[in-house]
Specification:
Elements: E1 2-3, H1 18-23, E2 41-45, H2 49-61, E3 65-69, H3 72-83, E4 93-97, H4 105-115, E5 121-125, H5 130-138, E6 143-146, H6 151-162, H7 170-173, H8 195-198, H9 211-222, H10 227-232, H11 244-256, E7 263-266, H12 273-282, E8 291-295, H13 304-309, E9 310-311, E10 323-324, H14 326-329, E11 334-338, H15 345-357, E12 359-360, E13 369-370, E14 374-379, H16 383-388, H17 394-400, E15 403-406, H18 417-432, E16 438-439, H19 441-449, H20 455-469, E17 474-475, H21 482-485, H22 500-507, H23 514-544, H24 550-569, H25 574-581, H26 585-594
Parallel strand pairs: 1-15, 2-3, 2-4, 4-5, 5-6, 7-14, 7-15, 8-11, 11-14, 16-17
Antiparallel strand pairs: 9-10, 12-13
Helix pairs in contact: 3-4, 5-11, 15-17, 18-20, 24-25, 25-26
Length: 599
């Protein structure tokens, strides 16, 4: 059994310490750790100049030769030259962003995978949703890195990609004799046509074709979902999350979708197990075949075998016709067995046979029925404990527990709650045919701090309740349902801009404390406005003296002041300072370099 977990840090065979390699600039990383080989070459593609500089410095310090590109088109042009028998060697690994002008990273990855199938590509993106993860793996990406990512993790991923397999000769990389692309007429980068990537007989001859039109043509030929499609339908699977825990889930779905392997999804009730199972099916080669979901706990034990395997006419009282079971209905597709821990012990034996050889007998049948079904099971129970108690077959457990995909409870990922609440509020508003409501920041604080024993399902129900019961377009603290109000901690402090009555409800203060709170907020607002007034005076004086681009002048100084204050408060600890500023670690590192601040 393998539990899906991408938190480990892979290293090359000769790497004794990741920090040691990164810290030693004389260390040389080579393909397969060959001692006499040249340093491995990384092609870095990103249109963000600051991030590109940070990444290039990091990978060079890690012993790699880095060649940077501002657009995927430029890298495609060089690869195309190599494809046409150029003497230039291939890179050992490519790291590319997704959303870039002229040519997106997914189209580039798809083309590279088809023409250089052994060249590993690592895709990074700030749009870290399920669709991006799925599309990255479908285009042949070696790995998918959602931003912001830890630089050490990125280095470890690149090491693993470099040693994935030896670099290959160009002759072996060409998959077809006439698969090269004619770029004789590619004299102007602005005239690039993405159709050229997918049609080897078409030359790029006109600037009139728009980028959006070209991307649609590429989509039609490859089935790649581009950024335009993502924006029009950003959440086709209903799975929302930007947290690291959900990024792990997205990676797992992307890797497992194209495999017929059995998956066991575990997690508390309401965490979205059926949504994940459906996503595995929808993004698999079986997506045009049936997806059948069956909850074992909802079926009476004496009917469960008939429900799963069907029955012959006359097999039992009331069986007036032959009936197909769920396995036959799901033939060629996916069968999702929810709450597998509630399956009767006798039925587990029959299920084991199906998993072993794909055959079963209908109830009362004499002839075996052969099916091709992918099994995805789910449970909120501890199956290992059930095995020890003799309530679940051990051999069936090992048949199901090939790849285990644990889903995180909602209370461990509060950063995902704002997006989830917005989504559920909008969906509830559509159901009720009313304008969508928004959570006031103070109300959102309470929602994020709630334990959510029912997880995402409970949050969805609360959003529906608020859509019906709350007055106005903004949900205040005192509009929240009783179970949330009762959970408010005594030390809770609402936002200064919230009205007094809401603060009293949120903090459970007595009426006599109202004046004190109001006066305190007025004092805070007065103090907070001092720096704003000073900034306004400076801006007016600068404009009067004829200065321009004052935002470009003020922004670095503003960031410098906040950054120095956060570093002082955290005692020089970068990770803590980044958290105080609401930045990722990589963003803070980039700002330190840009502002020339030494720590």
């Amino acid at each position: 059994m393998t539990e899906y977990n991408d938190k480990h840090n892979p290293k090359s065979d000769s790497q004794t310490s990741k920090d040691q390699i990164i810290g030693d600039q004389m260390t040389k990383v080579t393909v397969n750790n060959a001692p006499d080989a040249n340093p491995a070459t990384l092609w870095l593609i990103d249109d963000d100049a600051a991030l590109r500089m940070v990444l290039a410095d990091t990978f060079e310090d890690a012993g790699l030769t880095v060649i940077s590109f501002t657009q995927a088109q430029a890298a495609w042009t060089r690869l195309n030259d190599i494809l046409q028998a150029s003497a230039e060697p291939l890179p050992d690994v490519i790291l590319t962003d997704i959303r870039m002008p002229m040519m997106d990273g997914l189209s580039f990855s798809d083309w590279v995978h088809r023409h250089f199938p052994k060249l590993p590509i690592v895709i990074m993106t700030a749009h870290s949703d399920l669709t991006s993860a799925i599309n990255s793996y479908q285009t042949g990406a070696f790995e998918y890195l959602p931003k912001p990512f830890d630089l050490d993790d990125a280095v470890a991923t690149i090491y693993k990609a470099i040693n994935y397999q030896p670099n290959m000769n160009v002759e072996n990389a060409i998959t077809a004799p006439n698969s090269h692309i004619n770029t004789d007429t590619l004299s102007d980068t602005s005239s690039f046509d993405n159709d050229a990537i997918f049609d080897t007989k078409k030359n790029v001859v006109s600037k009139a074709n728009s980028v959006s039109k070209n991307n649609q043509a590429a989509n039609h030929k490859t089935g790649i979902q581009t950024d335009t499609k993502v924006q029009s339908n950003p959440n086709p699977s209903g799975i929302i999350g930007q947290s690291q825990a959900m990024q792990t889930v997205f990676r797992a779905i992307g890797r497992l979708a194209h495999s017929p392997i059995t998956v066991l999804i575990t997690g508390e009730s309401g965490t979205g197990k059926e949504l994940v199972a459906s996503a595995l099916h929808q993004h698999s080669p079986r997506h045009q075949q049936p997806f059948i979901a069956l909850n074992m706990a909802a079926i009476p034990h004496d009917l469960i075998e008939s429900e799963l395997f069907g029955h012959e006419k006359g097999a039992f009282t009331g069986a007036t016709t032959t009936r197909q079971g769920r396995f036959e209905q799901a033939n060629g597709g996916t069968l999702f067995l929810d709450e597998i821990g509630d399956m009767p012990f006798s039925t587990q034996t029959r299920l084991l046979r199906v998993l072993a050889n794909g055959e079963f007998y209908r109830v009362g049948g004499q002839q075996p029925v052969k099916v091709d079904v992918r099994i995805v099971a789910a449970t909120h129970q501890n199956l290992e404990a059930l095995v020890k108690q003799g309530k679940f077959r051990e051999d069936l457990f090992y048949r199901l527990n090939v790849i285990r995909l644990p889903l995180p409870p909602l209370r461990t990922r509060p950063e995902d709650i704002p997006a989830l609440a917005t989504y559920f509020m909008q969906r509830a508003a559509e159901q009720m045919n009313t304008p969508p409501k928004q959570l006031h920041p103070a109300a959102l604080q309470i929602v994020q701090s709630f334990e959510w024993g029912g997880n995402v399902r409970q949050l969805e129900n609360v959003c529906l309740w608020l859509t019906v019961m709350a007055t106005g377009d903004t949900v205040m603290v005192d509009d929240l349902p009783p179970e949330l109000l009762e959970s408010i901690p005594s030390h809770f402090e609402a936002h200064p801009e919230q009205n007094l009555s809401t603060q009293q409800t949120a903090q459970n203060h007595q009426q006599q404390n109202g004046a004190r709170i109001e006066n305190q907020h007025a004092h805070d607002i007065s103090n907070n406005s001092n720096w704003q007034q000073a900034l306004a005076v400076w801006a007016e004086q600068s404009l009067q003296t004829g200065e321009t681009d004052i935002l470009q002048t003020a922004t670095p100084e503003f960031e410098r002041v906040l950054l120095m204050a956060a570093l002082k408060h955290s005692g020089g600890k970068k990770i803590a300072a980044a958290s105080l500023l609401g930045w990722g670690r990589n963003t803070l590192t980039r700002k330190l370099q840009q502002l020339d601040i030494s720590v």
